[in-house]
């Protein structure tokens, strides 16, 4: 075992990359849940985004176009969930599970002909001299566009929820859909848009895994990241900046256990690989005492006749 | 414009009709999917749903229906108890793995001793393994209010890693020439879950599934606990006022579903699968969720739904080898079924009215 092979600066830089898929998916789900909808299909939307992004990036040769396609794919799949829960008023837990099961199958079906292919690489942004600054350079200025997009997204969602009218309406719908309806807001329409936003974010998160993190296509490659993102929203008490904090925490754990595997620590690989999931449970337990932050109408079905 | 009007009572007609309608809709859209994949849709559907039952080699496939159906029914029965009460155990896959590991572990510990007591001990260990894995989210929910959906799901990934570790380490066959995977329990008479009647596909897991169905039926229809489960699901506040203890219910529902999933894993590993290996689990724990809903969370319905799902697995295998239909297409097909079921369930609780503009 040789821990000195783990370079803390590279670890932090890699942590930011490892955190990005969770960050994107969790930020999207945060908006969905603030609108009062619990979409358990994040894993399914991520994996569909992962293959859509991968396939389009390979076919077009452009990774950015791939990310765009991933967002579209995720949003289209989320429309199925929106239809089930908003139009046919189905149970949100069951519909979310259905979305995940369906998404896993669909992605495997689309992905058959893409196994073993290498996708085009998304280059890191060039910040010129800034990238050469010791420590700060490699940590902050050595990443690709999507990673910065993720950070910007958190800031944008935070500002949107806190300062804009759209955010206020969204939160009103999530806190009390009957009151929002009485005020004349289109609950179903707002929720559908929120669900699609969540789907697009999850799709991009998935594409980040298949195009940048891994980068190749294997069935079921999201391996529970979507579920961790769901846990992260609870962990973050439905607050955007805390999602960022949580995502970096999980990104850090994921990256650290990978580095420890590489460094040949005496702990068997399987037990290291378990750690992100076990830590998710531990964090959920510690933070589950406080449920007051949850949106009031979360998970409840809305129908104007009630 | 179509308007929805809530029915005062859920429609009994549609409660029975929606699963049938959902299956028909899935046939249709599944056919479209198969056509898009360049396969003859009618031939595909016939291959999947007719061939295993009445085709030339039906004598070979029919027993498979029991082999594949038993774990699905066993797990789905457990899940349905919780789902009825609004307690969501979606980590049955993990409980299934742990049941198999505990059970196989006990069996292999006695190798090569032969005794009639070994298999019963394995059954107990398997049930215990599944129960333990499900009681973790239950205790966390009762004690700390932690979300059982997320915890039970996280434990699936933990269990999968544990399975990998066991099949490469502790339970690895010492005479296996270094290949991963345990000794084959089919070659160890005392630990083998053999067919009760040769060639029938009926092993002890099928018997356990039948017992579970009867047990669940009696529980829900005749027992106070079953009543508590139903009331909690339909009116949680009323349940609390009538003295139902939510904590006890959570522990029971999650524990029981874990126990049954563990049993399913044990019967699988000691019978059809034969050994602990890295890819031992094939998603029964997740498919059982579809089975539970398709069976309308009713024991008899679950039996029918379980057999139908088993049929898609078997027919899917045949279609894969004969028509080159990808395995993932069957997975999509199963997912579709759940979608249609959830969507059509609208008709059970609401009436469609035509006319008048939308208000929402």
Give the DSSP E fraction of chain A (strand runs of 2 or more residues): under 5%
Total beta strands of chain A: 0
Oligomeric description of these chains = heterodimer
Strand content of chain B: under 5%
Strand count, sense and closure of the main sheet of chain A? none
Give the C-alpha Rg of chain A: 19 Å
Per CATH, the class of the largest domain in chain B reads Mainly Alpha
What do we call the CATH topology of the largest domain in chain B?
Answer: ABC transporter involved in vitamin B12 uptake, BtuC
Distance between the termini of chain B: 12 Å
Specify the helix fraction band of chain B: 55-70%
Quantity of strands of chain B, as a count: 2
CATH architecture of the largest domain in chain B: Orthogonal Bundle
Structure description:
The complex is a heterodimer of chains A (306) and B (360). With 306 residues, chain A is mostly helical. Chain A has a single domain (3-120, 144-287), classed as ABC transporter involved in vitamin B12 uptake, BtuC (Orthogonal Bundle), CATH 1.10.3470.10. Chain A has twelve helices and no strands. In chain A, α2 crosses α10 (225-235). The longest helix of chain A is centred in the N-terminal third of the chain and has 27 residues, at 8-34. The radius of gyration of chain A is 19 Å and the shape is globular. The mean pLDDT of chain A is 86. The mean pLDDT of chain B is 86. Chain B has a two-stranded antiparallel sheet with strand order 1-2. In chain B, 70% of the residues lie in helices and 3% in strands. Chain B has helices at residues 12-36, 41-49, 51-54, 58-84, 92-110, 118-144, 148-168, 204-222, 224-234, 236-241, 246-270, 284-294, 299-323, 327-344, 346-349; strands spanning 2-6, 350-354. Chain B contains 15 helices and two strands. In chain B, α5 runs parallel beside α7, α5 (92-110) crosses α11 and α8 runs antiparallel to α13 (299-323). Chain B folds into two domains: 1-37 and 326-360, no CATH class; 62-323, ABC transporter involved in vitamin B12 uptake, BtuC, CATH 1.10.3470. Chain B has 360 residues and is mainly alpha-helical. Chains A and B meet through α3, α4, α10 and α12 of A and β1, α7, α12 and α14 of B.
């Amino acid at each position: 075992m040789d821990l000195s092979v783990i370079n803390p600066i590279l670890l932090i830089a890699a942590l930011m990359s490892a955190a990005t898929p969770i960050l994107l998916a969790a930020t999207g789900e945060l908006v969905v849940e603030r609108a009062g909808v619990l979409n358990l299909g994040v894993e399914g939307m991520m994996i569909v985004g992962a293959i859509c992004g991968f396939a389009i990036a390979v076919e077009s040769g452009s990774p950015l176009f791939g990310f765009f396609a991933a967002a579209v794919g995720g949003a289209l799949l989320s429309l199925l969930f929106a239809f089930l829960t908003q139009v046919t008023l189905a149970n949100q837990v069951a519909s979310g599970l259905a979305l995940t099961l369906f998404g896993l199958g669909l992605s495997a079906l689309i992905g058959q002909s893409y196994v073993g292919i290498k996708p085009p690489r998304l280059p890191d942004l060039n910040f010129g001299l800034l990238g050469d600054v010791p420590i700060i350079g490699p940590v902050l200025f050595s990443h690709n566009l999507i990673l910065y997009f993720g950070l910007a997204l958190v800031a944008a969602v935070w500002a949107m929820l806190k300062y804009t009218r759209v955010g206020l309406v969204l939160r009103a719908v999530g806190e009390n859909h009957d009151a929002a309806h009485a005020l004349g807001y289109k609950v179903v329409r707002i929720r559908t848009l929120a669900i699609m936003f969540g789907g697009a974010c999850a799709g991009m998160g998935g594409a980040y895994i298949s195009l940048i993190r891994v980068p190749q296509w294997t069935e079921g490659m999201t391996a529970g990241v979507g579920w961790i993102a769901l846990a992260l929203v609870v962990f973050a008490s439905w607050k955007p900046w805390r999602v960022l904090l949580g995502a970096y925490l999980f990104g850090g754990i994921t990256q650290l256990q990978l580095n420890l595997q590489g460094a040949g620590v005496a702990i068997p690989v399987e037990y290291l690989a378990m750690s992100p999931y076990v830590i998710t449970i531990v964090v959920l337990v510690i933070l589950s005492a406080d449920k007051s932050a949850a949106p009031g109408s979360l998970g409840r079905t809305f129908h104007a006749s009630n | 414009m179509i308007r929805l009007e809530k029915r005062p009572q859920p429609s009994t007609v549609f409660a029975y009709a929606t699963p049938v309608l959902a299956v028909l809709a899935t046939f249709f859209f599944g056919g479209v999917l198969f056509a898009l994949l360049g396969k003859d849709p009618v031939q595909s559907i016939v291959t999947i749903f007719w061939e295993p039952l009445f085709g030339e080699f039906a004598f070979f496939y029919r027993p498979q229906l029991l082999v594949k159906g038993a774990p699905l029914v066993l797990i789905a029965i457990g899940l349905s108890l919780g789902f009825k009460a609004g307690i969501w155990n979606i980590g049955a896959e993990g409980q299934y793995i742990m049941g198999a590991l505990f059970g196989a572990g006990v069996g292999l510990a006695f190798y090569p001793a032969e005794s009639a007591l070994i298999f019963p001990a394995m059954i107990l260990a398997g049930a215990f393994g599944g129960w333990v894995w499900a009681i973790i989210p239950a205790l966390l929910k009762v004690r700390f209010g932690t979300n059982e959906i997320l915890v039970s799901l996280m434990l699936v990934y933990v269990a999968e890693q544990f399975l990998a570790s066991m099949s490469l380490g502790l339970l690895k066959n010492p005479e296996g020439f270094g290949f991963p995977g345990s000794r084959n329990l089919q070659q160890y008479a005392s630990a083998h879950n053999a067919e009760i009647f040769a060639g029938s596909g009926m092993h002890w897991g099928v018997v356990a599934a039948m017992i579970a169905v009867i047990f669940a039926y009696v529980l829900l229809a005749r027992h106070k606990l079953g009543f508590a489960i139903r009331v909690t699901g339909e009116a949680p506040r009323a349940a609390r006022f009538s003295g139902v203890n939510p904590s006890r219910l959570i522990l029971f529902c999650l524990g029981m579903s874990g126990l049954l999933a563990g049993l399913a894993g044990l019967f699988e590993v000691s019978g059809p699968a034969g050994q602990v290996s890295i890819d031992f689990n094939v998603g029964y724990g997740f498919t059982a969720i579809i089975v539970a809903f398709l069976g309308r969370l009713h024991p008899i319905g679950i039996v029918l739904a379980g057999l139908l799902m088993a049929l898609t697995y078997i027919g899917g295998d045949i279609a894969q080898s004969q028509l080159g239909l990808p395995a993932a297409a069957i997975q999509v097909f199963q997912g579709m079924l759940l979608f249609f079921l959830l969507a059509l369930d609208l008709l059970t609780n609401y009436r469609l009215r035509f006319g008048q503009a939308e208000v929402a």
